[in-house]
Design goal:
6% strand; single chain; Arc Repressor Mutant, subunit A; globular; mainly alpha; 93 residues
Length: 93
């Protein structure tokens, strides 16, 4: 991963960290999506997310699909190339 301007790290909220439904990697990805959302949606692509999480793009794709099935992440504003992920997981608690 290259040095990202403005990226200062990741904090995993207890609502995510203590949720037994997720593996550690899924917790990191969910916290990253929630952290990048900031109320406007997460515009990061799977390659970017995979680079930060240290996993493959395929793993990100599968995990985001799992989150979508669970109803904790939704994809919006898809234009055929770019999608926006939104999550209100932390607001539900």
């Amino acid at each position: 991963m290259t040095e990202e301007k403005g990226f200062r790290g990741l904090w995993i909220p207890k609502e995510i960290m203590l949720d037994a439904r997720f593996t550690l990697g899924e917790k990191v990805l969910l916290a990253l999506i929630c952290g990048l959302d900031n109320g406007e949606g997460c515009y990061a692509g799977n390659g970017y997310l995979a680079g930060i999480c240290g996993c493959t793009e395929r793993m990100v794709t599968k995990t985001v699909a799992k989150f979508r099935r669970m109803g904790i992440v939704e994809s919006s504003d898809f234009d055929g190339r770019r999608r926006v992920l939104r999550s209100d997981f932390l607001q539900e608690k």
